[in-house]
Amino acid sequence: MGFTPGPSDPFIELMRPPPGETPAQAMARQKRELDAQKRSDAIDESIKQAREQAKKERNIIKVLLLGQSESGKSTTLKNFRMRYSREDWEKERDGWRAVVQLNIVRSITTILSVMEAELSGEVPAESDGDDATQVGDNEEMKFTDRHQLLMIRLAPLRGVEAELKRRLGAGSEPVQPSLPMIATPFDPVNDAAVVRRTDPEFAVRSWKDVLEREGRPPHMEEASGDLDRVTDTIASCKDDMKGLWEDKTVRLALRRRKLRLPDSAGFFLNDLERIASRDYVVSDNDIVRARLRTVGIQEHRLKFKHGPFDNPKGKEGSGWEWRMFDVGGCRTSRAAWLPFFDNVNVIIFLSPVSVFDQRLEEDPRVNRLEDSIILWTSICGSKLLAKTQLILFLNKCDLLRRKLKRGIKVKTFLPSYGDRPNEVIPVVKYLREKFKDIQKHASPEIRSTYIYPTTVTDTEATAVTLESVRDGVLRENLATSQLI
């Protein structure tokens, strides 16, 4: 039986036109009511879309890779992609060939520049306090006609370097001539903090653009010919490059000049027989170690279709997506970090443990380990990141081991280390406790500590770490979502 409203029904009273309403007033009232209804409908639609978006993003985790320059962020991202995005990884493999070639050629031309400086009598620059070893009096450097011949025979590699840079950098935006240099992304930027970029290292805007362009078959014979000429020239210089790299006098010159080649240089130069060949095929380890500096933000998406916490019934829609962002780590790039802190779920922070005796390239006044600690403290103490899961990689344990074996004393550069053993495990344990204490005391809210000693160039060992990180991240995000 239906409800028949009586004369006192409040809804009838509310909708009844006011007494004595003119036609013009009625039109105005109806327009107001229509506008109000449109606003109400728009709000309802906005709420509906927000709910649908939240439902879609329920299984999306935003991950930031942070740390100073050359801390291992890009290498960590490569490890994630190699393990969890294998199809895309394979598509890009051929694109890395030119990058590896540039790494080799750039190392050789850098060594040639050192030899030129030695032969011209140029006085070496003062030491910046890094791990360079002094050349003893009994290790006199004597360059011979053979060295002069090596320099002449390897001269074509300068043209190869220019050609590779042209190919890899095609379409890249020019690097800004001046950028703000700040210690943490939360520091104010002022005129005094703006510095002109003097870093000569080659850089591109994005991995993706370079790899997609280099990886696909060339459409023009000219492009194919350029790449073949590069490969032929490198292959023809293989024996001379090996001779240069293995020469004792050259090694002494590098030590005298305190030249620190990229960490990956030795890996490539020690394997020239394989890499400097016409039939060279890029390996996974080559890609992980290949250095290609980027000045833009790298975003990559990983999909975990069979994660350990997927829907146990296998319903559609199960699985997780990670949106990973790799941002520039030098002090001139940190002002760009702040916008990426919005709604971030996880920060993987990389602190290289081998840099206790080195200084920042962009600011030689600052010790690299000190810079890393300052940066970690600011991230831990940020209220904006109070609910963000923090994961710390104490990276480059392999390089730490090499330094300690050469007799470099940690306490010389880190007096608080005291008389503890100058060995890898005690050093890493000491630093782990220091970083753990910083997180405990600086964090606005209580949160768990996740710290892993790593060597991210060791892909097998890193794979085990990534499994643990993946499981921990998914578990914590499920708990936050009150799903477990």
From TrEMBL:
Protein name: G protein alpha subunit
Phylogenetic placement of the source organism: Eukaryota, Fungi, Dikarya, Basidiomycota, Agaricomycotina
SMART domains, A to Z: G_alpha (SM00275)
Any Pfam family: G-alpha
GO biological process: adenylate cyclase-modulating G protein-coupled receptor signaling pathway
One GO molecular-function entry: G protein-coupled receptor binding
Region described as Disordered: 1-41
Organism (species): Lyophyllum shimeji (Hon-shimeji)
A single cellular component GO annotation: cytoplasm
UniProt keyword Nucleotide-binding present: yes
Keywords: GTP-binding, Magnesium, Metal-binding, Nucleotide-binding, Transducer
InterPro entries per UniProt: Gprotein_alpha_su (IPR001019), GproteinA_insert (IPR011025), P-loop_NTPase (IPR027417)
Binding site for Mg(2+): 294
Residues engaged in binding GTP: 263-264, 395-398
Positions with biased composition (Basic and acidic residues): 30-41
